[in-house]
């Protein structure tokens, strides 16, 4: 971490950042709006591989809507290398940069007809259906992280206020994490609906756990790119996800910009 911090300070200065953003599919252009350097993950020891098409593996540090932020243009998913803790080093660096909050975004499949493709869902809670955990192997008692209100009520309220100011509907729901990279079956989607899930995706939950471990306040928003298996006749694929992500991403960018502009 110290080597990564040194490289970041050399390129972006040592002023503390206000918060971190991890961008999902379709939001990469928001990283380029940051007024500051873009540092390739490959240059930062401990940063993830992040090799999914449609993502931007750079750390952007600088001003966005008057706030100094650290924007992660990509994440490493569990399905890439089988490591649920792949983002731990990057989030430890975020904490060391002075951030107190983390906002996560992702692309997800909807399990609710009233949250169709192009809409957004603010995560009120999540289901770690995989049972995988990025803190397995942690030696200290800090590994026993409480997850009640892991998705910060205060941060969610601030994002809802920003959405209302922009005239954007932002429903809340429960996100279920499936490992991927294959999409879920119809039977699995029926099961997840029975368990109380409102959307399903292949990321975010490990980062929420890591963020709470690091005492970062956290919130997450899904861009709905498709209805989950069996919920419609559309053909689900990664190409379809990349094509549909910009529909919700434009709304999400407006919410994030408004939220940042409203921060003291």
UniProtKB/TrEMBL annotation:
A family per Pfam? PNP_UDP_1
Q: Which domain of life is it from?
A: Bacteria
Q: How does it assemble?
A: Homotrimer.
- What's the protein name? Purine nucleoside phosphorylase
Say yes or no: keyword Cell membrane present: no
Position of the signal peptide: none
Question: Hey, which family's this protein in?
Answer: Belongs to the PNP/MTAP phosphorylase family.
InterPro entries given in the database record = Nucleoside_phosphorylase_d, Nucleoside_phosphorylase_sf, PUNP, Purine_phosphorylase
The terms under GO molecular function for this entry are:
purine-nucleoside phosphorylase activity
Q: Where is the Nucleoside phosphorylase domain?
A: 18-261
Enzyme nomenclature, EC number: 2.4.2.1
Function per UniProt: The purine nucleoside phosphorylases catalyze the phosphorolytic breakdown of the N-glycosidic bond in the beta-(deoxy)ribonucleoside molecules, with the formation of the corresponding free purine bases and pentose-1-phosphate.
Write the record's keywords in alphabetical order, separated by commas. Glycosyltransferase, Transferase
């Amino acid at each position: 971490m110290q080597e990564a911090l040194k490289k970041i300070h050399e390129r972006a200065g040592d002023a503390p950042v206000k918060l971190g953003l991890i961008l999902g599919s379709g939001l990469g252009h928001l990283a380029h709006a940051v007024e500051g350097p873009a540092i390739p993950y490959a240059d930062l020891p401990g940063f993830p591989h992040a090799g999914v098409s449609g993502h931007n593996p750079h750390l952007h540090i600088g001003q966005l809507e008057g706030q100094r932020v650290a924007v992660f243009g990509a994440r490493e998913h569990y399905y890439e290398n089988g490591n649920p803790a792949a983002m731990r080093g990057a989030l430890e660096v975020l904490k060391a940069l002075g951030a107190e909050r983390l906002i996560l975004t992702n692309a997800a499949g909807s399990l609710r007809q009233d949250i169709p493709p192009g809409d957004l869902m603010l995560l009120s809670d999540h289901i770690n259906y995989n049972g995988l955990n990025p803190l397995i192997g942690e030696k200290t008692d800090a590994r026993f992280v409480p997850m009640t209100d892991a998705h910060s009520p205060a941060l969610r309220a601030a994002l809802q206020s920003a959405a209302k100011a922009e005239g954007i509907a932002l429903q809340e729901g429960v996100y279920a994490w499936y490992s991927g990279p294959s999409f879920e079956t119809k039977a699995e989607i029926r099961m997840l609906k029975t368990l109380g899930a409102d959307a399903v995706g292949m990321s975010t939950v490990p980062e929420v756990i890591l963020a709470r471990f690091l005492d970062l306040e956290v919130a997450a928003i899904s861009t709905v790119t498709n209805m989950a298996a069996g919920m419609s006749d559309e053909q689900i694929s990664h190409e379809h996800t990349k094509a549909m992500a910009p529909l919700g991403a434009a709304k999400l960018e407006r919410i994030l910009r408004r939220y940042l502009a409203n921060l003291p």
